[in-house]
Design goal:
rod-shaped, Beta-Lactamase, alpha+beta, five-stranded antiparallel beta sheet, 9 helices, 3 domains, 7 strands, two-stranded antiparallel ribbon
């Protein structure tokens, strides 16, 4: 509609110019109307100037509009009506387009500030830098972790570790690394993860830092606790049967002191004493071997695998725990199928 009115105004102005020009030509032929001819000539010139100004104002408005968009100057507004009421709609469209650009720019700035706030808030250190080493973004976590108040170039990290800048610049997308650095006399174990992206035709590298030393220390403490529990369990398993068998031997010896047994009973008791002593010896050797392997608490003992009968394993268990079973009136029944079943294990550890 705006352009239709503009076209009509151009046609009307050109028509009036043509009429004025015709009148000037006609009157010029008649000398009696010389003054009228001069006046019409002036009117003709005024109409030409007005037409030029009318068309140039449109170009000026368009130029001003595009310059505002190019320079992101969204403070401009089009409210003048120098071109007449027919251009009120054009001014309105210009203002609406500028307002849309302004809104879009504001939303992008808000989104950027939102992401920047999130990046500054996270506990993981983040550095974004270009291929030439220029740092574009680094968050507060990096400042705290690396104790750097400012970071303009990735090479500034050489004050922490000489090869750290080269390591970061050589990392590819998806690469991970674990490095140890000393900062303020404190050992940090940094887990580093890198990714790459392109923006505005330039390549950027995003590197995240996280100190995993506390987590490793916690895992180490848990490992020590588990190891100590294993030690306690194995030592108690060996000490308890030895103590029980010692009590049994002591009881047999006391009975022999009080009364002289028959040869059959004496022979049976001696066999029991011999078995108990042999069992104590075996358990003591196993305990000594176990303690020897764990004495430095630095490595898990390597099992000495060999084949042995399951029946022998249960016989040793019954012999070790027999006194407790009798004391607590516990009956035991062992069934193994097949009877010659063997397993591959370390007898000392499995006991």
């Amino acid at each position: 509609m705006v352009y239709k009115k503009f076209r009509i105004q151009i046609i009307i102005r050109i028509t009036l110019i043509m009429i004025t020009f015709a009148l000037v030509f006609i009157i010029h032929e008649q000398t009696a109307y010389a003054i009228s001819s001069i006046i019409l000539a002036v009117v003709f010139l005024v109409q030409i100037i007005a037409l030029i100004r009318f068309t140039e104002q449109t170009n000026i408005k368009l130029t001003h509009f595009f310059e505002s968009i190019r320079h992101a100057d969204f403070t401009s507004s089009f409210t003048d009506n120098e071109l007449g009421k027919s251009f009120e709609g054009l001014n309105k469209e210009f203002n609406e387009v500028i307002e849309a650009f302004k809104k879009n720019k504001t939303e992008k700035e808000e989104h950027f500030n939102y992401l920047l706030t999130v990046i500054q808030h996270v506990s993981v250190g983040i550095i974004v830098f270009k291929r030439d080493g220029t740092v574009d973004v680094f968050n507060n976590a990096v400042k705290r972790l690396l104790q750097l108040p400012r970071l303009r170039n990735i090479k500034d990290l050489s004050v922490i570790e000489d090869q750290l800048p080269n390591k970061l610049q050589s990392m590819k997308a998806g690469n991970k690394a674990l490095i140890k650095v000393f900062i303020a006399d404190e050992l940090l174990q940094l887990s580093i993860y890198a990714t790459q992206f392109r923006m505005r035709g330039e390549e950027y590298i995003l590197v995240s830092f996280q100190d995993i030393a506390p987590e490793l220390e916690q895992k180490e403490i848990e490992s020590w606790q588990k190891l100590i529990r294993v030690l306690t369990h194995e030592i108690m398993n060996s000490i308890t049967p030895i103590s029980s068998l010692s009590e049994t031997i002591d009881e047999i010896v006391k009975n022999h002191k009080n009364e002289l047994p028959s040869p059959e009973i004496y022979k049976e008791d001696m066999e029991n004493v011999g078995q108990a002593i042999a069992t104590i010896g075996n358990r003591s050797k196993g305990l000594l071997n176990f303690v020897e392997l764990y004495r430095n608490l630095t490595r898990i003992p390597k099992p000495n695998f060999r084949h042995f009968y399951v029946q022998d394993l249960f016989d040793r268990v019954i012999e070790l725990l027999g006194p407790k079973f009798e004391k607590n009136n516990i009956e035991t029944t062992i069934k193994i199928f097949p009877k010659d079943l063997k397993i591959l294990a370390d007898p000392d550890l499995i006991d």
